[in-house]
Amino acid sequence: MALEITQHxxxxxxxxxxxxxxxxxxxxxxxxxxxxxxxxxxQESDWLPVxxxxxxxxxxxxFPAHDMTVxxxxxxxxxxxxxxxxxxxxxxRSVRSAALSATRSADHVALSVDSAESAADSAxxxxxxxxxxxxxxxxxxxxTLLYETKNKTDIADFVQTPLWAVKIPLAIAKRWQSFVDYQxxxxxxxxxxxxxxxxxxxxxxxxxxxxxxxxxxxxxxxEWWDRPVAEVNADVTRWLEEAKEGAVVVPPPEPGLVGTVDxxxxxxxxxxxxxxxxELAGIGGLLQILTGAAEDLAALLVGNNSVAIxxxxxxxxxxxxxxxxxxxxxxxxxxxxxxxxxAKLQKQIDSKDYPDLAPDVAEALDSVLELHGPVLLSTxxxxxxxxxxxxxxxxxxxxxxxxxAAMDYGQAVAKSPDLFNKETRELLPELNExxxxxxxxxxxxxxxMSASRNLLITVARVVLFETLKNGLAASVxxxxxxxxxxxxxxxxxxxxTSYLPVIRELAAVSGPYLQWIEPxxxxxxxxxxx
Length: 530
Prior knowledge:
Elements: H1 8-15, H2 20-40, H3 47-62, H4 69-75, H5 87-107, H6 112-129, H7 132-148, H8 152-159, H9 170-181, H10 189-200, H11 210-218, H12 222-225, H13 229-245, E1 259-261, E2 267-269, H14 277-301, H15 313-322, H16 328-350, H17 359-377, H18 380-388, H19 396-414, H20 422-433, H21 441-463, H22 465-468, H23 474-477, H24 486-498, H25 500-508, H26 518-529
Antiparallel strand pairs: 1-2
Helix pairs in contact: 1-6, 2-3, 2-5, 2-6, 2-9, 3-4, 3-5, 4-5, 5-6, 6-7, 14-15, 14-17, 15-16, 16-17, 16-21, 19-20, 19-21, 19-25, 20-21, 21-24, 24-26
């Protein structure tokens, strides 16, 4: 069914009752058609923000299942644009409109009517300053293809169709060539090649970066994008070279519980983030009081089945305090769990589903929680963990998807005794069940997801151990690999191959944190086939 659309109102009416994703894709491709006009009409310092807005808008449309919320919001802030009606200003407005559309689409809250109007506006902006017939013919082709889509694969194929259904308008071609020929554009080669592939490619040839690198670039934080342009482009160039080689680049662990390999060859959590001697000297008295309160609480709960707190939480918290060295990472995680348990218990008490706590139990429990914060925040690692938790604020929809994926992954770990030690098989499912829960849901999510991803980093280091240990990337392997044996490596590969879909789903909802793992999963798939 070939459609013919020739004006703003027709497009807006047609999209009004269609999925919001359709409107976003139309808006993103309209902005991409205007990109050469936008780039040749602005200062060199503004090139990257405009490219970023277009690139992320395109990526959101191509990968709707991935967590692109933060990326889209950041791209939409690429800068103010004039309200004038010159070709350059209209191009900038079209780019910004697409970036805002990407934000709504990534947030999963887009209203079809609003999205349709935005898409139609973007299309009209293009048609006002470029050969009108070519614009509307290309938009008609877009809508026709969208009518023919039936699944995610069809959407991906649509995103990779050439931007223009007819010959590229001369005004666009000239502006684009002017940008390519500009002497200072040479270090923008990755972006030039990406856009050129969209203009002339079709199918896989239109996906210059490939899905893994597209997601990796799009989901980088503001701090990465806000660096000098040459540094950003150098990173992209290096990643392209690595991607061509099929390299697996294992990142350093995130703040939080860190994985290691025990002496018996099993993966577990290390005693990471240890407090320094100076910190311990400064909090010695407070730490002693906290330990005493935790001991009192543990004693009160022995044999006391009337207090609805998971029996493992308080002993784990006390064990952190009684260890030879104070692991702030472990204490933070145990404190978050204890706070969640207290909040859940109080909710049950308030709803009359549970009787009031005995005064001595309530006093001991609340004393521990009141002392926990000052002890934690008296250390540099504790402050870093609390500060990083703001990155884990999410919408309800995002949190639900993340929790499902995290719980599935936790169960996968629990079912893998050959690879993971007993503590880890018991602890990780409990942490992941608390995703987006408690009085500070962002902290619960942070604890669970950093632990989950750090375990995958350790698993990756295990399977790559023989390759990396004597090479230039030996620093990637790091400490804690002494227990790695051939058997450990085999168990790690077995875990990856057995739970490929589970790990992929966790990566999909983890934003930028797990995009590095896809090349490794493809290696696992290859081993599985062989």
